[in-house]
Each structure stands twice: as structure tokens, then as C-alpha cells.
Amino acid sequence: MSRENIYILGIESSCDDTSASVICNGKVLSNVVANQEVHAKYGGVVPELASRAHQQNIVPVVQQAIEQAGITKNNLNAIAFTRGPGLMGSLLVGTSFAKSLALGLNIPLIDVNHMQAHILAHFIKEEESKIPPFPFVCLTISGGHTQIVKITSHFEMEILGETIDDAVGEAFDKSAKILGLPYPGGPLIDKYAQLGNPKAFKFTKPKVGDLEFSFSGLKTGILYFVQKNVKENPNFIKENLNDICASIQYTIIEILMDKLKNTIKQTGIKHIAIAGGVSANSEIRKRLTLAEKHWGWITYIPKFEYTTDNAAMIAIAGYLKYLNNDYSDISVTAKARLKVTE
Ligand code: KG4
Ligand code: ZN
Predict the structure, then answer these.
(1) What does 201-239 look like in DSSP terms, one character per residue?
(2) How far apart are CA 86 and CA 306, in angstroms?
(3) Within 10 Å of residue 281's Cβ, how many Cβ atoms?
(4) How high is the pLDDT of residue 41?
(5) 185-207 pLDDT, tens per residue?
(6) Of 179, 283, 284, 308, best ligand 1 pocket probe by most atoms within 8 Å of the beta carbon
């Protein structure tokens, strides 16, 4: 007898992307993401505009996800949604929508921790998927977080180290802003860096604990470096954009690789995953592939579409909770601050 199909709808609305996804027994049937262009001209996410755009997007995005999956809403077994962390106004849109839909369909509601979901995206079943065994270590690198997390089972996580100031995504975005690039600047730095010399300019790496990160000093260093050079040559950025981006990216990725080396030395765990928006970066992906070849690390690099915010990761986390009968009460509330361990 074939196993029953379990369909989970995931809803993500923690920041500036409205996303919905349907997965069936851990396989993605649809993953619709509506990006909000409205923030680019402000150089960062404007919370009030984000929640308004979520309100406009959520119904069509969910409808599209269900249609693309080739099912109807009556086939759904549960609704999973992002409870936090994130922007309160944004989280409230997804939370209220998920609650109403679960109530209307009379099916379980499952709250998901966004940071856990970034990590659990590694458990999405794909044709050629490589699923990490427990325990493994995940470097979670996004616009709001930079953490080294030890994962002992799907929902047992321990933070081994984290940033003491800015997140690595912020380091990319703020550096891009200094260079006059629009938000979010991370992907643009990546793009220009591919044409530049990573050793053209040297930036100082921070001195913090073995498993800690700090990016605010680097950001200030880059600001002073740019200001000084622009004073001498007003066309400095334009003439050197590729080399500046390559050098910034090289420094940031060196910092991340150093921390991973320290983690392996301290824990003895060689199964290393990356997750979060910055794991889309081509250089960190390349360096991890090389580490596997040369140093015997076993690395887990998410598919590109599961790196930045998406609802497939929320749906897979919801599916894993569903299998444990771990449902939420309808009184559950959104939480702007939520640790990966909560
Ligand atoms: O995980 P995410 O989509 O949202 C948060 O939960 O924060 O991460 C967004 C971050 C932004 O800072 C963005 O600039 C960065 O991920 N990012 C990148 C790349 N693609 C996205 N940073 C460097 N290189 C990229 N290719
Ligand atoms: Zn995220």
C-alpha cells in the first residue's frame, strides 16, 4: 500500500519577500516568491512599506503556490508559517493569514522559527539531494544573523558562536551602500567581484574570539578607505569598482572560512552546511567545494533558490514538525525576536 501523501503549505513573510510553497512528503511542488522592489530606492527595508506590500501579495502568492502544485486547498494537511524572528508588521500578515486559513480548512497550524527553517532547508528532498547526518555544523549567514550552529537533531540546535555586532549580510549591504550601489548590495558585490582582483586592496580582519564574528570595524575601515581615495580621485569608485568589490568579498569570505576551520578544530565535526541569504554568494560556494576536495570536509550547499528567504524552507520545517505531531495553538503570536534555539 502506498504511503499517504502529506501536503504542507508554507508561508513566509518575515522581512521583504512574500512567499508561499507547497511540499508533498518533503518534496517541493511549488515555491513562489514575490520580491518587494519598493525598498531599493530607500537603501534598505522600510518596515511600514513591507507590511503593506505583504498584505497586497499574500492572497495571490498563496493562490499561485497551490495552483502550481496541482492541488486544491482541500488537499492540504497543515499550514506552516514563520512566527519569527523578523519585522513585527511583516510577521503579523503571514501569521494572521495562516491562522485564518487553518481555521477555515480545519487543519493543523504549525509555527516555524525562520532561522531553524534556513537550516532545515537542507532536508528538502531533491533528485540529487545530499542530506546532512547528525551532528553537523551550519554556518547561518543572512541579513540579520551570523551564527555557527551545531545541529544534533532536527529541532535540537546549539549556538557555538555568533556576531558581536553586524551580520555578514549587513557587511555586504553596507559596503555596497558606501560604493553607491542599491539595496540589497550583496548580490551586486558578488557580481562585480567576479571581474576584479581580490588582492587589489587589503582590509584588516577583526580580532575576536575563535568562534565569534565582528563586521562593524571592517565596515568603518572600508568607509575610511573609500573616503580617502575619493578625495584624491573623485572617479576612484568607478575606475576600481570590480577590484574594490573583489577585495571586500575576499576579506569577508576569508573571515567566514577561518571561523569554520576553528569550528572543525574545536568540535571535530567535518559535516559543514551553509544557510541563509549570503550562502548564495558564489565565492563561499566555491571555497566550500574546494575545502571538500582539498581538506576532506563534507559540505552541504543549498540550492540557490533555498538560500534567500523562501517558503519552501518554512514548509519543510513544518513537515518535520507535522511528523512529530508538533502543532500550534490558534492563540500563537508572532515574535520579532526569536533565537534559533527557541
Ligand atoms: O536570508 P535572507 O534572504 O534574509 C534574511 O533573513 O536576512 O538574506 C538576505 C541577505 C542580504 O544581506 C543580501 O545582500 C545577502 O543576503 N545576499 C548576498 C548574496 N545574495 C544575497 N550576499 C552576498 N552575495 C550574494 N550573492
Ligand atoms: Zn532569512
Answers:
(1) S--PPP---TT-B--HHHHHHHHHHHHHHHHH-TTHHHH
(2) 18
(3) 25
(4) 78
(5) 999 999 999 999 999 999 999 99
(6) 308
- What CA–CA distance (Å, rounded) separates 59 from 166? 34
Ligand nearest to the CA of 143: 1
Residue 108 Cβ contacting ligand 1 at under 6 Å: no
For Cα atoms 311, 315, 320, give the angle at the middle one, nearest 5 degrees.
150
Unique residue bearing C-alpha cell 537542507: 122
Q: Is the separation of the CB atoms in 261 and 269 below 8 Å?
A: no
Ligand 1 contact, 281 CB (< 6 A):
yes
Q: Is the pLDDT of residue 3 over 80?
A: no
pLDDT band at 1 (very low <50, low <70, confident <90, very high): very low
pLDDT digits (tens, 9 = 90+) for 77-130: 999 999 999 999 999 999 999 999 999 999 999 999 999 999 999 999 998 879
C-alpha cell at 314: 518554512
Q: Looking at the CA of residue 114, tell me the nearest atom of ligand 1.
A: 6
Global model pTM greater than 0.90: yes
Atom 14 of ligand 1, nearest CA residue:
186
CA 70 to each of CA 39, 59, 186: distance values in angstroms, whole numbers, following the listed order? 33, 17, 35
CB 202 within 8 A of CB 290: no
Those residues whose C-beta lies under 8 Å from the C-beta of residue 29, and which sit 6 or more positions away, are 7, 21, 22, 23, 68, 69, 70, 71
